Amino acid sequence: MSAAPTACLLIIGDEILSGRTQDANLKFIGGRMAEMGIRLQEARVIPDVPDAIVEAINTCRARYTYIFTTGGIGPTHDDITTTCVAKAFGRNVVRDPEAVKTLMAYYGERANDARLKMTEVPDGPDVELINNRVTAAPGYRIENVYVLAGIPNIAQAMFEAVAPTLQGGDPVHSSHVDAFVRESEIAAELSAIQLRYPQVSIGSYPSLRDDKFCTSVVARSTDQGAISAVLNEVADAMRLKGAEPTRPPLG
Amino acid sequence: MSAAPTACLLIIGDEILSGRTQDANLKFIGGRMAEMGIRLQEARVIPDVPDAIVEAINTCRARYTYIFTTGGIGPTHDDITTTCVAKAFGRNVVRDPEAVKTLMAYYGERANDARLKMTEVPDGPDVELINNRVTAAPGYRIENVYVLAGIPNIAQAMFEAVAPTLQGGDPVHSSHVDAFVRESEIAAELSAIQLRYPQVSIGSYPSLRDDKFCTSVVARSTDQGAISAVLNEVADAMRLKGAEPTRPPLG
User: Fold this and answer.
1) A29 touches chain B (CB under 8 A)
2) In this model, does residue B249 exceed pLDDT 70?
3) Do the Cβ atoms of B18 and A30 come closer than 8 Å?
4) CB < 8 Å from A in window 192-221 of B
5) Paired strand residues for B205
6) Which of A28, A227, B79, B145 has its Cα between 20 and 30 A from that of A106?
7) Residue A251 has pLDDT above 50, yes or no
8) Residue B109 sits in a domain of what CATH number?
9) Taking CB atoms and an 8 Å limit, are A77 and B185 in contact across chains?
10) CA distance B71 to B11
11) B207 lies in which domain range?
12) Which CATH number goes with the domain that contains B181?
């Protein structure tokens, strides 16, 4: 088995860092990466500052199999992602003829300069448009960098348009067992179980439900049998503390 | 006026990258930073991988005034933040006597090893606990790194406990004007306004409301008068396109 492909998400936009807008793209892309067996190893939220964007793109594209960016490809002055991607690759920015054609067909006489800005891509025959079912404005791929819109439903449509072309790995399965028990009461047992199952990543997530302490233990692995075995043992540990697991264990 | 202090948020946890959990700490801390005049220049979401955590801490603490981390300071085996922070600073991990006392007072005989793990901090007389009103387990500060819990209400309580000790800058004010207009119809005007007001950061955010295209134009600056002037001009540009701004302009 070859090493699993890796990925990084670059979330571009002052509005995320200022707290104005809640990002929703990480949760979606993170979930899809897990399903596809691609390891999302990092996400960075960066401001609308050219040097910061160029540096993040160049650092991350050298480090991971795939880079996804979200945000900054609209029609206004604060949409600077394409300028920065082009600079990171040492290329000029050009209007893509196919994108212009699509946009003209959609807008007709209303295709002003701002709208045509959305047809801009870095120059080069290897740049591929990412058309999508939501808008007439495309994203694009350049080498291992996938440039997507920031608006979640458009980002998702663009992601799904390229998903079939991505090289996946063994899917990472995930399952969990929950109980009304404090995680500190089963911590020793979880440590022991983790040691016996190094191929499973065991996460423990506390929360309050109905004012009672609850722990959700999540097992993630490419090996579904090992997940079942782990969750059975976790459920036993919960019962030993007098807590009934809220889901039947697998298997 | 001295340069504004800067900050970076490190969100630590596989559960955020896998899409299981929606992060809520960035939105909160980003908003509070803006109010306090501290420039949040980056956020990174990193996995529960020691080398990745150590590298991110050391890269970012050299670059920004303040580093906040969230996540990974609970009682279970997957809580590895303190081990990594200590390693980043080249220090050992010890149980803090004051934290042990607080925890013992809270748990009494139920203070097992897992719970005592939550009293661990990097060694050194300069490490300061961040007590909070929600839990008996503290966060802590080491130099310019503030280590907070991941659970949002605890992270927020810890943040507010240290907020009065942070050196702020001129607060960044923010206001906006919205209208049912496509952003591409006012893009040229926004560019011209941005050029005339370099001290204001103007962001344009499109959305769909009631199936109609809407644009929210946000002006951010330390200069409230400039924000008012910008938003008056933006509102005029919207009206020229036949769209009525949904808020009266300021000033």
Assistant:
1) yes
2) no
3) yes
4) 194, 201-207, 218, 220
5) B216
6) A28
7) no
8) 3.40.980.10
9) no
10) 7
11) 173-240
12) 3.30.70.600
In a shared domain, residues B157 and B217: no
B74 Rama sector, left if φ>0, alpha if ψ -120 to 50, beta otherwise: beta
**Residue A31: its chain B contacts at CB < 8 A?**
18-20
Whole-angstrom distance, CA of residue B245 vs CA of residue B239: 7
Task: Round to whole Å and give the CA distance between A120 and A92.
Answer: 10
**In angstroms, how far apart are the furthest CA atoms of chain A?**
72
Reported ipTM: the value is 0.94
| Count of structural domains, chain B | 2
Give yes or no: residues A79 and A118 share one domain: yes
The pLDDT, as a whole number, for residue B250 is 46
Is the domain of A222 the same as that of A184?
A: yes
pLDDT at residue A250, as a whole number: 46
Angle between helices B25-36 and B152-162 (to 10 degrees): 20
Residues B147 and B181 occupy one common structural domain: no
pLDDT recorded at residue B209: 83
Show Cβ contacts of residue A211 under 8 Å, excluding neighbours closer than 6 positions.
none
CA distance B135 to chain A (A): 13
Domain co-membership, A196 together with A156: no
- B164 contacts B80 by C-beta, under 8 angstroms: no
Contact between A248 and A236 under an 8 Å Cβ cutoff? The reply is: no
For the segment A31-47, what is each residue's pLDDT rounded down to a tens digit? 999 999 999 999 999 99
Amino acid at A201: S
CB atoms within 10 A of CB B232: 17
Cβ contacts of A151 on chain B, cutoff 8 Å = 206-207
> What average pLDDT is seen over chain B?
94
Indicate yes or no: CB of B188 within 8 angstroms of CB of A47: no
Same domain as A216, residue A155 = no
Boundary residue ending a domain (B165, B183, B217): B165
Q: How many CA atoms, within 13 angstroms, populate the side-chain half-sphere of residue A47?
A: 17
Confidence grade of residue A164 (pLDDT, cut at 50, 70, 90)? very high
B247: its two tokens: 């808020």
